[in-house]
Amino acid sequence: MLGLLFLPCAAQKRVCVEKLAPAVDSIAGYGIRMGAFPGCQVVVAQHGRVVLSKCYGYHSDRVHRKVQPTDLYDLASVTKTTATVLAVMKLYDEGRLRLDDRASRYLPFLRTADKSGITIGDLLFHQSGFPMTIPFYEAAVDSSSFAPPLTQKQPDERHPNQLEEHLFMSHFSYLPGTFSPVEDATHHQHVYDGMWFADRYADTLRARVARVELGPRRYSYSDIGFIVLQWVVEAITGQSLSDYVEQSFYLPMGARHTLFLPRRRYGRQQIVPTVQNDVLRGLREMQGYTQDEVASFMGGVAGEAGLFSTAQDLALIYQMYLNKGELNGRRYLSQSTCRLFETTQSDISRRGLGFDRPDAHDAANFLPLSTFGHSGFTGTEVWVDPDNQLVYVFLTNRVSPVPWNWKYNRLDIFGRFKRALYDSLE
User: Fold this and answer.
1) Is 64 among the domain residues?
2) Is 121 part of any domain?
């Protein structure tokens, strides 16, 4: 277990907590005052020890519950490297999957002229040609319940519901039988309290993926590619992605606050809310259920989003990455597999095998090129710096109350945090 240890200023490029702590206090306070996010968790570990672990602010502007270390955040795309990449690495380690394997080997519905050649490596590098996303919910909308178009860029009396920053939606109804208020024989996908999604749409999503037009084989960030990776993992293991990573990694590590569908283990009050008045899910506040629409309509478990965790749990998991597959005397992945996935970089982009890497600006100024990690739409970040033996986690719910609150990005909150962290190295 990572211990809580406040290290003094020292030589050999150690974090000087006396410098870092007040800087983080200032950055977090600034973000909260400016409305970039209502609260956050921050953890910094170096050489396997936590040197800083702090919480700031509240769950939301409406719910003045102070953020606690055991409160769970919706990770959004940090799911990719905390669940899907972990699973792929384990299967690679065991010889059950290769990077040059075609996804269609495991998923027969991809044996089409344009998709049969897509490899596991293509998907990890975001070079498969799959689009960013597919508006999957449209398959469940009753076309007779609204006058087209369903969405448009400007609001009017027929399109009053804001879905995105520049996208407004008509009032609409879902097709009969799409949802059930209780789980039954044909509804097993838990979208929200009292909302169970029909099983038949699982085949619809796969059919949409099989038919979707591919873009050129260049770098293009794709959530759909990581859903395909999820399906590959599930086809090989015979388990859901959720069960596989929980049993193989999270529970043995002691990361009990890391899971999909957190309401099965934790009460609502321990889960930080995201979007209020979600248009696609009955104008409800998303609390304990993923903000990501595609992951939601997949029942809350997806290769691209849906995972919840705490900053302390993520520090554990990513310490295992930093340790090249080992944590607290137990080996989860081989050193060679970790080295391959953590150091390989695309020859046409900054991306690694599932991991993101520093952009040119950060790398030129202060961030070692060996650094890897991922960010999430909800305002979440987790990064590993092997050169300085650092793991750092910054979790917010910047999408509360609305997902088009971009102050977190525009104020460069995480960039300020990174600079403060590296300025504290002495």
Assistant:
1) yes
2) no
